[in-house]
């Protein structure tokens, strides 16, 4: 622990400290005082059983945090026993618990020149977390500042040798890591194969046999009460004599699942019979070498080598072995592929050992017995109102976050002594980002386009360049990492490789050119400062899945992923749910030059169909901007691969991502993905073919047999018609007198017992006049439509801003100007009968709300306004479309109003509980995703894992 001692000594000497800049905060104002807080009730149920699985009432969050974000933070991250005073009940408590621990350690270990710098760092870190600009990985929120061990890392790599002591220790170490809710990976290639002899003369068991024991251990710990499934990665080198058995392990188990399912056993994920199947708790990957891949290209033989002596004990046809990898992946999505020589060519510490394995999601790749803590930036927070990327702010935030992440290593605890020593000596960090897919769409870039890849490459380059620049600056204050001297030349060589890759980026627009220019400057600083100071961290960046923390930041997309779908499922405050068109779409359409009426028609089409194909007025060349991971225009497999390839040269680690292929994909298609992944310089790749895993989707235990032709009943034709809901004979009504441009009239609005508008009458003009008759007919038509279920917001959207005489000043303080009678009437109805979020999204506010906006920068109602049932997604999408600034976080409605408010919000069937199930409805087929074992919701992909939209649980990622 030499580094710790040196840092403390430097702190006592009063070191100069790292540079702390003001980014978001206002001098003399605490970040908490700039936002409006509200109390919420968090009640979570398993929709399948109806059981309440969590309940905490009166929790405190900023009003711009979505219901989903506050629910996940409350259930996952608040510490203390429920129902006691020790239980956290406010986001303030959670952020303070973490931030104040970081600041205290920063002071103790000499990171700050003085107390003023420490206070400024505290406020900037607090502001950024409060406004969802970035988030630390889950273990930080679980553990930091509690009485539990201060575990800050989500990713672990273990080591196992060819001895029984080491193998049993592997089981134990994995168990402790799983118990804490984290995951680990390791390489089993040191273990002798089943084709080699033991010293006693017998035959070795081989690594696959020991995998069974580890899998059973992981399954037992999972079922013993962990918050999520055990997550693990098992790697085997392609030249191991047992490689063929390893490749086929999970494919053969998939055959077993099919047979047991067809026999009537419950083989769903989490089903009572699935435990009889082996190897289901791990991701498997084959570590391939350049030698092997060249042998595949050339059709040559390839040697499998004994573990003890290294001699070739068997020759195999390289192409046949490669085909077995591809066929197994086609059958069950395992194994993945890791490219060994590429990984180690970018290794900053080769003198300390090779990189042999990864964490479960394949983004962290470093020395054996090491760990990495992660943090991810919300990219959409850096997109300003004028659709430019805030480059200086992005770079400053990266530098601040890297500083905090490095401080965490000073006070962190680790599950084993070996992991603790390696982590402290090499200080591996994993900064990354989320919401890339949403950023590309909002700026009019297709995920599969050259422009999209150029923008992603520039952002990733600036991310890592800024991170290593700050790492070199910290090294000048607190010293370089302990293993740096031994690896200095190799580390500097990798920095030059990153710089050279940055020079190869070809920008196509103003946005990516500006970001690339800053990245070029950052890499020049990295080289210069590194020569002078060395580096504080052996590793700086990865692209993680950002599952749970993505929900915490209200991100539309996770990690490097494209948008999951154009139509999303959202829960409402107070219960219920809605289907909502992704609010990035109107912004993208506006960026592409479409006008209000065009945007409205396109969004309406998306709401009805789930895709943009044949959308009225949408140019076909713009279709690519709206391509998603699922749906009618799903991104092609090579589109995923090329995006990864664009970003990979600018990452210390790798990328957690699964390349999705359609069910019709062939083994040859998968072979092409694996081959191109190698040629394009990826470090790892995983694929998933639709419907290849029968144990994951929810399905009947046994497929129902189709009846014989003679038994088929005549098809029943069911006609669906709207049902009129008539008002009661005695109903509540409110009459409002008004004057528009000097012309007077009366508006009478009647409601149902639940206060929903069901009837209106307009009196305008002299009795018996043509105008009065038209108004009566109009009133009846609207009233009947309301009773048949047409939403009021549809009428508000259609008739507000309609221009004709009389127009001008009104006598209503809430609607001071009206462009016509219709404009006034439906603005008044919106104020009286629509919730705050819905009308706010249309730009309709009361006089009091406008006054509040002038005072606080936010239209948002306070608790006293008693606004209930508001739609949480509007504040979420509004917040995510605003660039960070020192202003209040809620974006003004006018910035995102598209003229498409009603078309993108509609009720969904009670049978739908997630975006994955919503896409099933649009596509007419089941989505290949597991069910959440906590709340029963169908999960959706996040990197190479899955995440639940209902409760934030993940299948192994953090």
From TrEMBL:
BP GO annotations: DNA biosynthetic process
Domain Ribonucleotide reductase class II vitamin B12-dependent N-terminal: 42-132
EC number(s) recorded for this UniProt protein: 1.17.4.1
The reaction(s) this protein catalyses: a 2'-deoxyribonucleoside 5'-diphosphate + [thioredoxin]-disulfide + H2O = a ribonucleoside 5'-diphosphate + [thioredoxin]-dithiol
Keyword Disulfide bond listed: yes
UniProtKB keywords: Cobalamin, Cobalt, Disulfide bond, DNA synthesis, Nucleotide-binding, Oxidoreductase
Residue ranges, annotated region (Disordered): 865-891
Catalytic EC class: oxidoreductase
Segments of skewed composition (Low complexity): 875-889
Cofactor(s) recorded in Swiss-Prot or TrEMBL: adenosylcob(III)alamin
Source taxon at top rank: Bacteria
Residue span(s) of domain Ribonucleotide reductase large subunit C-terminal: 153-688
GO terms for MF: cobalamin binding; cobalt ion binding; nucleotide binding; ribonucleoside-diphosphate reductase activity, thioredoxin disulfide as acceptor
Record domain TSCPD: where: 727-831
InterPro entries to which the protein is assigned, alphabetical: RdRp_reductase_class-2, RNR_2_N, RNR_lg_C, RNR_NrdJ/NrdZ, TSCPD_dom
Record's function text: Catalyzes the reduction of ribonucleotides to deoxyribonucleotides. May function to provide a pool of deoxyribonucleotide precursors for DNA repair during oxygen limitation and/or for immediate growth after restoration of oxygen.
Similarity annotation: Belongs to the ribonucleoside diphosphate reductase class-2 family.
Name listed for the protein in its UniProt record: Vitamin B12-dependent ribonucleotide reductase
